Amino acid sequence: MEKIINSYESMLIVSLANGEEAAKATVSKFTGLISANAELVQVDEWGRRRLAYLINDMAEGYYAVATFKSESDFPQELQRLMNIDESVMRIMVIKLDYEPVAKAVEAPVEEAAQEEVPASDAE
Question: Residue 81 belongs to a domain with what CATH number?
């Protein structure tokens, strides 16, 4: 029987109580777990953001979104493991109706060097 591969997106908000480096470590732990058990398409770390409402008496959290492809049983296990971790404040895993495509990382656009107009030409 052929295995069905679906596309998913997972968003997690990590507590900043232990600092931003600890939050980044938690995000990398779960992205490592996803890449070990599924095909990781893209990870967007939004960083420190203000929450819409207080969660556990905290007004800020560290946001991250991971897009991946996996079999249908892995997202449930991922949610279970994220719920066990005390530093994770909120999670959401959804099944995507479309095929995710990794976005190309845009290099910063450098401003073109402007040619200087000699002052003698201005009259």
Answer: 3.30.70.60
